[in-house]
Amino acid sequence: MTRAEKAARIVAILDELYTTLPIPLDHSDPYTLLVAVALSAQTTDKKVNEVTPALFARAGTPAEMAALPVDEIRHLIREIGLAPTKAKNLQAMATQLVERHGGEVPADFAALEALAGVGHKTASVVMAQAFGVPAFPVDTHIHRLATRWGLTSGKNVATTEADLKRLFARERWNDLHLQIIFFGREYCPARGHDLATCPICGWAASKKRIAEEAAQRAPRRR
Fold first, then answer.
1. 139 classed as catalytic
2. Is residue 143 within 8 Å of residue 188, measured between CB atoms?
3. Catalytic-labelled residue, pool 26, 121, 175, 207
4. Considering 45, 47, 108, 139, which one is annotated as catalytic?
5. CATH match for 3-19+137-217 among 1.10.10.10, 3.40.50.2300, 1.10.1670.10, 3.65.10.10
6. Catalytic site residue 121?
């Protein structure tokens, strides 16, 4: 089966499984989405959603965030991984939004990626979910699934993003990003996963890949 044939079958399965696509991170506008996505690195969406209400009550706009001391921001997000670094980045990012963009989140990849603590993946999520611009944000989960399914060589997330963009129609990128995330959480975990019984891995993964991950699950003999 070619990659294109796999891609078509994967789309059909995901469309059947996920007809509604709620955005995992709670937010009310592009700014609060940007903050939530920036906080989500190496942290679960659930934990971010637990922390952001108190943060946004104190800093619901870039101007309010820029005015908060870094120590206060850090205290508000203390349960989030890498809180000290993220606190510094949030204040710097908010200051940049105020000084460079009049307190608005720019709908532009380059401008977003120039903000403190904002990488390509974060910018892609904001462009897709806040502004509806086709993007294919690739995090470690999507990278893992695309590699398992043989849609990419898996060299790095940049290669995976380019491969997925070539395989799938541009107008499907935003939905597929969420559908693959939801599928990974429900059916395709990183560890202890039986690829042979998975609704997609069972036919999309190579026999070699299935055998390799089965061997990793098997208990080691002493």
1. yes
2. no
3. 121
4. 139
5. 1.10.1670.10
6. yes
pTM of the model: 0.91
Exposure string of 157-167, with b = 16+ CB inside 10 Å and e = fewer, is: bebbbebbeeb
Q: What are phi and psi of 43, to 5 degrees?
A: -145, 150
Residue for token digits 């695309």? 146
Token output for 61: 């706009």
∠ CA 78-138-102, nearest 5°, is 60
pLDDT at 218 over 70: yes
Structure confidence by residue, pLDDT tens digits, 158-171: 999 999 999 999 99
pLDDT for residue 221 is more than 70: no
